[in-house]
Structures are given as C-alpha cells and as structure tokens.
Amino acid sequence: MSLPSTDSQAAPTFLDEAALQELTDLLDETHPQVALAAFQSVDDNDAAVFLVMCTHLKSESTGDALAAHAGKLFAQLPFDKQVSIAEKVTMTETVDSEHARHIWNEQIARIKEAIQKTAFLGEGTANLAKLLSYLGIMEQNELLEALGEKRPGVVDSVSERLLTFEDLENLEDEAIRTILQVLDKPTLALALHNAPAAVHDRFFENMSASQAEAIKAETAQLTFEQTQIADTARQSVVNLVRNFAAKGLLKMGF
C-alpha cells in the first residue's frame, strides 16, 4: 500500500503499512518513560531523521498516531537536546534510504531492549496510596502535607485513591449523620446526583423525611451545567470526611 507524503518526495520503500503499524503498536504499549529512555542516547542526527520520518508519514490505519508519539518524545527531552535536534531537522532534507532503514530498525530494537530491562512497578500515586493505607488519617495528612511542598501536583491524586466516594457506603450511621449536619444542600444534592446506589441509599437512610425531600427537590432543579461538576462535589464530600476523621470528629470504621 502506498503511503501519503506531505510533499512530492516518495517515502522510503521500507516504510510500508506494516512498518508504521509495528512502531505505532510498540509505542502504544510502551510506557512513555521507557520510550524516552530508549531515545535519550540516540545520536542527534539520527534522532532528527527518526522524528521527521515519524511526523512526515501516516497510513490509513495509523493516521497521525506516530506523529503524536514523536511529538511527545521530543517534548520530554532535555532542552539542550531539543535545540540540537531542532537544528539537525532544519539541516536534514534528504537521507540515504539504507541509513534511514537502519535508524528506524535500531530505534525499534532500542525500545524493545529498554522494555526487557525495565521492571514495571505500577503507577506511582497508586503505590503511595497503598503504602499510606497502613497509616492513620492524621499520619496520612501529615505526610501528604509535607509531600505537597515538594510535589504539589500528586497530592490530590494520592488523596483520591486513599478514600473514594464509593468508599463512603461503609461509613457508620453516626459518621454519615455528622457529615449531614455540616454539608450544604447544593453540594450534597450535586454529589448524590447519579451517585452509586449503595452510597446514595446510605445517605438517605440517615436523613430525616424533610431533609430527604429537600435534597430530592434540589437535585430535580440541577441544570445540565451543574451536573457536569458532580465529581467535584463528590470530592468535596470525601475531603470533608477525611478532615473530620483526622480531627477525631468521626470514625470511619474501615
């Protein structure tokens, strides 16, 4: 199958549908940091050729997927290497086909070798959340506060994994009633909109009839725009539970 080109020059004959699909599949399945590690030591001249080939060509099945992968790889490189490769790109308009084939195959081999040499430990925030689950709420909050000074971007992600809105179905009745005393009606109504049935029921079981009617009325009046931020309201409820538990104002019991 012929591959479209962005100019009048023909693509190297070895870059057929199968070649593009192979690299696309490999990059789809490779952790970005592993692909980056495999690319870091590539000669800047070869890196320029490889990136241009990835961004220059596409097929019916891969579309712009290779270009996206190449762009992400380039964006993660150290700035000085980006500058060097950028200079090489501006100076490289032709390349020997055999050399291009060598660069292409070598990079695929580098990625495969990097995968074989890498032990995958899973997502970092999930791993930390698992470790923190063995600590008490106060200790968790203290550690997360200290971590936030160094890595503010990861704290929310870890917190969300420590306690989810779905976990609230396991709260004791007394804990739920404590939360209901301080939660404002709009936030609670939004949080319970299309919430998991188990959590929804646990809250309504601990409301008075008048409070339940008020929440139902509030929910019925929600606009489409408001329902789009239901997850934010749920996280607010979760944060309130964590803060109350840390201050000893309620027991989570799980």
Description:
This protein folds into 3 domains: 17-116, Orthogonal Bundle (Annexin V, domain 1); 122-162, Single alpha-helices involved in coiled-coils or other helix-helix interfaces (Up-down Bundle); 163-254, Flagellar motor switch protein FliG, alpha-alpha superhelical domain (Annexin V, domain 1, Orthogonal Bundle). Helices cover 68% and strands 0% of the residues. It contains 15 helices and no strands. It has helices at residues 17-28, 32-40, 44-56, 65-76, 79-91, 97-116, 124-132, 137-150, 152-162, 173-182, 185-192, 197-205, 209-220, 224-227, 230-246. Helix 2 (32-40) packs across helix 6 (97-116), helix 8 runs antiparallel to helix 9 (152-162) and helix 11 (185-192) packs across helix 15 (230-246).
The termini sit apart by 59 Å
Question: What is the overall number of helices?
Answer: 15
Biggest sheet architecture: none
Molecular shape: elongated
Element layout with pairings:
Layout: H1 17-28, H2 32-40, H3 44-56, H4 65-76, H5 79-91, H6 97-116, H7 124-132, H8 137-150, H9 152-162, H10 173-182, H11 185-192, H12 197-205, H13 209-220, H14 224-227, H15 230-246
Helix pairs in contact: 2-6, 3-4, 3-5, 3-6, 7-9, 8-9, 11-13, 11-15
List keywords for this structure.
single chain; 3 domains; Annexin V, domain 1; mainly alpha; disordered N terminus; about 250 residues; Single alpha-helices involved in coiled-coils or other helix-helix interfaces
Quick recap:
With 254 residues, the protein is mainly α. It contains 15 helices and no strands. Helix 3 packs across helix 5.
